[in-house]
Structure formats: structure tokens, C-alpha cells
């Protein structure tokens, strides 16, 4: 009699274009082991499927819906404050284009080797940023979120921490923060040290001196610097190395003419090196189960197993509930932009079956449902 383990079962079903209903999986084999006591839910820019990203409303909704951690992406202002935006270019996530007093500040820059045009946080003081209001980044995909356009200001990191601390006391549970340092090589050239500013703020707040914190970045130079600065003196803090596209060269390596890609950094040998300065890696979901050109799931990779073998946790990104973001076999007939809760739950469960330790999601309530069904 042949016994199928989970990974072999997934490989066989993917190879034959067959997707078993996830409700059947527990009766067929045992799930791969996770290094975590329980899978963690990281709210991606807050509950960004339901509220404009990186607003206190998005963070609050995420907390109400059961997120274990909320994620503030961090970029600096002209006067050195850290604010919660996914990128320095605020053209698509604020109403800056409607502020005629800032029209002359629209410009082109090169960031990490790519040209961008728009308005950038480093050209604005915090006081000026506070005159802007957040807008939905994906208005055609998430039109309901546009009803909140103009409601919320752009929060600073300090304001985010205060908000989470208050929510923690109200909900009677400890809520973690998973801040991402954005483009540190680029900002360092402009005279900003996001790493040092972040540490100063985290160390100065009583909540983050006690609550779980996981600092993430796509550049290992920043994480190695942080490890050197803090050592292992804060046991409730972790560092996570984010992994971009396999063919992409990390910005800090590109800046010095290096050729090493993120794919090169996903090998067992490279993972052992990452474990010297980080406790976790953050690959994309496509690095766990690659998709074919038609959008179907292919064979699962060994990345989770390889990372676990070195002691690294795996926290992947990003689970989104709309059909267009789901593997083809999990989509329904409601349209590309329709929310597909059943399909999203099935996607998350499949990653958890591979031993995933935590995941980023735009909709933490769906993540909570997926965990409850495992």
C-alpha cells in the first residue's frame, strides 16, 4: 500500500490539473509541521480590502477582525518623521494631486534603479503631509473603499503605536506590530537613517517595549545593521527578511553592482546565512506554490521545508480575497473584482498545509476563518 504525504498529494493533484476540495485534505494525510505554536495573521497595510490602506481605520478594522499583527510600512518626511505609507510616492494613496499649492512638487526621480513620477514624501514636511487625506489605492478593484476617500489623515509611526496600544487595552489582547522599512538604500543616499529612527521610536514607547514586534525589509543590509545594533536584547522582537521576485536583484546589492538575485537567496545555503541575522523570511505566495502561465497552481516548492531546517519561520505575502488575485482553480464566476471568501479560505488553507507559520492578508477576518477550519 502506498502512503501519500501532504506534499506528494499536492504535487500529484497539481500535475494532473486536479484540485481536491480542501475539506477532504485532513482525512488524506497529515499537515506539514509549522515552527509556530499557531499560524499568525498579519494585516497587510491594515484591513486594506475593506478600508483605504495605512489609515487608522484600516488598522482598527484589522484588529476588530482578529489580526495578530498590524503592518505599518514606513517612509520618511522631509523633516525626518516616519509616516505610514507603502511607498514614498503618494500620488495614488492621497489627495495630493488636488492640492494646487503642491503642484510644482510633482517630479521624476530614480528609486532603486527605476524611474518614477509623482509627489514624494521627502519633499514634504510632516505639517504639510498632515494637510493631505488618504485615498483608496485600487479604486476600480475596491470601489466601496472610495467612500472613505478624504476621511483620514496620514498617521505617523508614533500615532500608529498609540492607536494599537489603546486597541490592545480595549480588546484585552496583545497586538503585535510588523513595521516594514521601505527603500533604506535610497533614503540613506538622501541622508535618512530609517533604521535608527525606527529603533528610537520603538524603544521610547512603553507598548513596543513589551509587545511583539517584527521588523521587515527587502534589504539584508538594513537587517544586518539592526541585528548589530540590538543584538538579542529584546526577545519579543524579530527580524524578517522579505524576499522579492526570484529574478530581481535586491536594491542594496544592485546599488553596489552585485548580481545576486532573490532566487539565489532562497537556496538552503543562503537560508542558513539569513538565519544568522533574522528569525523569519517573507516570501511571496508564488514562491510557496508557483503559478503556471495560465494562472493554475504548479508543484509546491521546498522553500518552507528548507527554511524550517535552518530554524527560520516563514511568513508569506499576500492573500487577497478578490477573484483576480486567486489561483485560477479557486475563482468563481462572479467577476475578477468580486470578493470570493470561499476561494480565499481555500487558498490560505493550502499554504497552511505546507507548514506556513503566518501570512499577510488584506482581509484578516477571512484569515481567521481559514485558521478556524484547519
UniProtKB/TrEMBL annotation:
It catalyses: a sn-glycero-3-phosphodiester + H2O = an alcohol + sn-glycerol 3-phosphate + H(+). The keyword Mitochondrion does not apply. InterPro entries: GP_PDE_dom, PLC-like_Pdiesterase_TIM-brl, TAT_signal. It holds the Pfam family GDPD. Keywords: Glycerol metabolism, Hydrolase, Signal. One of its GO terms (molecular function) is glycerophosphodiester phosphodiesterase activity. It is an enzyme of class 3 (hydrolase). One of its GO terms (biological process) is lipid metabolic process. It comes from the Bacteria. Its EC number is 3.1.4.46. Residues 39-371 form the GP-PDE domain. GO terms for cellular component: periplasmic space. The keyword Hydrolase applies. Belongs to the glycerophosphoryl diester phosphodiesterase family. This is glycerophosphodiester phosphodiesterase. It comes from Zymomonas mobilis subsp. pomaceae (strain ATCC 29192 / DSM 22645 / JCM 10191 / CCUG 17912 / NBRC 13757 / NCIMB 11200 / NRRL B-4491 / Barker I). The lineage of its organism: Bacteria, Pseudomonadati, Pseudomonadota, Alphaproteobacteria, Sphingomonadales.
Amino acid at each position: 500500500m502506498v502512503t501519500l504525504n501532504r506534499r506528494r498529494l499536492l504535487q500529484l493533484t497539481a500535475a494532473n490539473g486536479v484540485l481536491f476540495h480542501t475539506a477532504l485534505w485532513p482525512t488524506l494525510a497529515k499537515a506539514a509541521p509549522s515552527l509556530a505554536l499557531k499560524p499568525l495573521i498579519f494585516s497587510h497595510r491594515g484591513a486594506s480590502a475593506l478600508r483605504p490602506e495605512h489609515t487608522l481605520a484600516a488598522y482598527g478594522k484589522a484588529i476588530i477582525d482578529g489580526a495578530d499583527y498590524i503592518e505599518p510600512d514606513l517612509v520618511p518626511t522631509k523633516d525626518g518623521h516616519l509616516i505610514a505609507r507603502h511607498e514614498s510616492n503618494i500620488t495614488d494613496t492621497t489627495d495630493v494631486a488636488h492640492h494646487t499649492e503642491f503642484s510644482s512638487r510633482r517630479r521624476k526621480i530614480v528609486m532603486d534603479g527605476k524611474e518614477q513620477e509623482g509627489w514624494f514624501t521627502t519633499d514634504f514636511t510632516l505639517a504639510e503631509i498632515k494637510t493631505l487625506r488618504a485615498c483608496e489605492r485600487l479604486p476600480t478593484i475596491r470601489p466601496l473603499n472610495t467612500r472613505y476617500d478624504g476621511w483620514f489623515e496620514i498617521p505617523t509611526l508614533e500615532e500608529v503605536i498609540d492607536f494599537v496600544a489603546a486597541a490592545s487595552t480595549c480588546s484585552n489582547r496583545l497586538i503585535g506590530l510588523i513595521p516594514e522599512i521601505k527603500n533604506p538604500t535610497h533614503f540613506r543616499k538622501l541622508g535618512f537613517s530609517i533604521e535608527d529612527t525606527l529603533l528610537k521610536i520603538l524603544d521610547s514607547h512603553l507598548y513596543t517595549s513589551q509587545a511583539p514586534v517584527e521588523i521587515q525589509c527587502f534589504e539584508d543590509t538594513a537587517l544586518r545593521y539592526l541585528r548589530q545594533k540590538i543584538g538579542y536584547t529584546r526577545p519579543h522582537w524579530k527580524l524578517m527578511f522579505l524576499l522579492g521576485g526570484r529574478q530581481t536583484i535586491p536594491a542594496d546589492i544592485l546599488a553596489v553592482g552585485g548580481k545576486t538575485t532573490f532566487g539565489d537567496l532562497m537556496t538552503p545555503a543562503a537560508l542558513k546565512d539569513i538565519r544568522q541575522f533574522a528569525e523569519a523570511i517573507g516570501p511571496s505566495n508564488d514562491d510557496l506554490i508557483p503559478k503556471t502561465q495560465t494562472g493554475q497552481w504548479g508543484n509546491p516548492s521546498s522553500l518552507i521545508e528548507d527554511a524550517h531546517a535552518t530554524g527560520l519561520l516563514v511568513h508569506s505575502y499576500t492573500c487577497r480575497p478578490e477573484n483576480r488575485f486567486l489561483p485560477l482553480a479557486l475563482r468563481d464566476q462572479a467577476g475578477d473584482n468580486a470578493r470570493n471568501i470561499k476561494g480565499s479560505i481555500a487558498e490560505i488553507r493550502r499554504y497552511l498545509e505546507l507548514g506556513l507559520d503566518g501570512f499577510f492578508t488584506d482581509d484578516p477576518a477571512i484569515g481567521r476563518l481559514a485558521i478556524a477550519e484547519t
